[in-house]
Amino acid sequence: MNNRKYQKMVNELTPKENRLSNMLISFITGGIIGLIGTIIYVNLDKIYEPELAISFMLLIIIGTTAFLTCLGISDTLFQKFKCGLIIPITGFAHSVSASILDYKKEGLLNMGSNAFKLAGSVILYGIVSAVILTIIKVILNV
Amino acid sequence: MSSFKYNNVYIKDYETIAGPKEKEGNLVYQNTIDNYYYNEEKIEDAEIKMQNFCLTKIIKRNKLNNNIELIVGGDLLNQITITSYNLANRHLPFLGVYNACATFNESLIILSTMINQGSINSGLAITSSHNLNAERQYRFPIEYGSPKKQYTTFTTTGAACTLLTREPTNIKIESSTIGEVIDFGIKDATNMGAIMAPSAANTLHKHLTDLHRPLDYYDLIVTGDLGKLGSKIFLDLIKEEYNYNPKYYIDAASIIYNEEQNTYQGGSGPVVIPLVLFNKILKDKKNKRILLLATGSLHSPLMVNLKKSIPSITHAISIEVIK
Q1: What pTM value is reported for the model?
Q2: Across-strand partners of B16?
Q3: pLDDT at B244
Q4: CA dist., res. A81 & res. A100, Å (int)
Q5: What range does the domain containing A65 cover?
Q6: Residues B181 and B292 reside in one and the same domain
Q7: CATH code where residue B49 lies
Q8: Helices (H), chain A
Q9: What percent of chain B has pLDDT over 90?
Q10: Rounded Cα–Cα distance for residues A99 and B150 (Å)
């Protein structure tokens, strides 16, 4: 049996992920996170300036997720709701706090360098894409 | 030829310990632990403690003290640290081996060959794996719990220690086959069953042709940790390639956990074979000639990230139960 024939056989037998249901679950849970964020923002908006209210809202969501990660609740939620929780800022908070928990016992230096093991690419490519978009915006003068 | 027959190698004693998730599963074990930390602060220490527990019990029960001629063993962690740290300051001769989940059979082959040759009279095979340690090394941080695909396997927690001797007992190690490294171009490290199935099929065929045996010479063929999907691929493969149709076949990894435990395709790790062999197959006393095919996926996170295809290996051990 050659490689190609074998890979074909494996592909036939391997169960496929149900993409439609995954997408639906992610859509709904992602939406719920957005809704919670908006509710918090609308309430904070009455007290603070809009920009400050957004920052506080993000802090509350990040803090809650990190807290749930430390309690060991987040990972089960993430496995269940998948990208609905990974793509919003909850995913970022969870990946950083999970890495920190993992490297806690290796000392402060290792913990620091490994904290962004998973979130590092989010930060890097976030900044890079922001720079590129800003350049485009300046050139087009919109 | 890489198949060997042994005349005077026997399993005298064994000790196994299993983790909390395995405790809730299908089998009843000699010893179990209640949580992954095993009263230690670090999970690495917990795995060392599990191995240490098995080793100490075997030494005490057989009054071996310092008369151990050789220990062969290994585990899943980088540089087989768990086994090395377990044996630190014990003043015992040690050979560390690594063949991923085929480590246990590899140790048995080395020991059996040396005992059969007369180089040593007895020796110990030791192995362990820990779900959280493996998760951390091969996948993501423990608490991250990223969504898993349906066809992944779940690393089994446990440790096992086996004493092989020259003096006759009820369990005889009768023959063995050393496997070849086989790569069928599968790149997905989560689909371990598909990676390992071709090497299991290859070693099975080699074992039977080397020793001129029909398939039904064995009343039970056991694969190590192919998982439910992997064993399906394995059965299809041996039927198509060699026209084998085993009547009595089980996959050790598939029977460790029950359906509700959410472990996808079943267990994995070098400890799967000893856990199932000693806690189910030998306990049931139904089978006389057993062929153990321990399958190992030889990948490392580095090679997976470099998008290389993953090689695998399978070692076979045949066990005869005398009444």
Answers
A1: 0.92
A2: B160
A3: 93
A4: 22
A5: 19-140
A6: yes
A7: 3.40.47.40
A8: 3-13, 19-45, 50-70, 74-81, 83-86, 89-103, 108-114, 120-140
A9: 88
A10: 24
Amino acid B91 reads H
Total Cβ atoms within 10 A of residue B60: 11
Which of B144, B184, B198 faces A98 most closely, judged by CB atoms? Answer: B144
pLDDT in tens, B265-307: 999 999 999 999 999 999 999 999 999 999 999 999 999 999 9
B141 touches chain A (CB under 8 A): yes
- Nearest by Cα to B32 from B256, B262, B255, B258: B256
State residue A79's pLDDT score.
84
Q: Of all helices (H) and strands (E), which one includes residue B75?
A: strand B71-75
Handedness of CA A118, A119, A123, A126 (dihedral sign): positive
B144 vs chain A: nearest CA distance in angstroms?
5
Domain span holding position B103: 3-165
Query: Of B165, B190, B218, which residue constitutes the final position of a domain?
Result: B165
Q: Indicate whether B65 pLDDT > 90.
A: no
Question: Is B88 in CB contact (< 8 Å) with chain A?
Answer: no
> What ipTM does the predicted assembly reach?
0.85
Model confidence over B106-131: pLDDT tens digits? 999 999 999 999 999 999 999 999 99
Specify whether the CB–CB gap between A99 and A115 falls below 8 A.
Answer: yes
Amino acid identity at A64: T
Residue B84: which H helix or E strand, with range?
Answer: helix B81-86
Block mean pLDDT (10 aa), chain A, length 142: 89 88 93 95 92 94 94 86 88 92 91 91 93 95 78
Any idea which residue has 């060997």 for tokens? B4
Residues from A contacting B (CB-CB < 8 Å) are 1, 3-4, 6-7, 9-10, 13-15, 17, 69-70, 72, 74-76, 78-79, 82-83, 86, 94-95, 97-99, 101-103, 105, 117-118
HEC-encoded secondary structure of B129-178: ECHHHHHHHHCCCHHHCCCCCCCCCEECCEEEEEEEECCCCCEEEEEEEC
Same domain membership, residue B84 and residue B8: yes
Instruction: Return the amino acid letter for A38.
Output: T
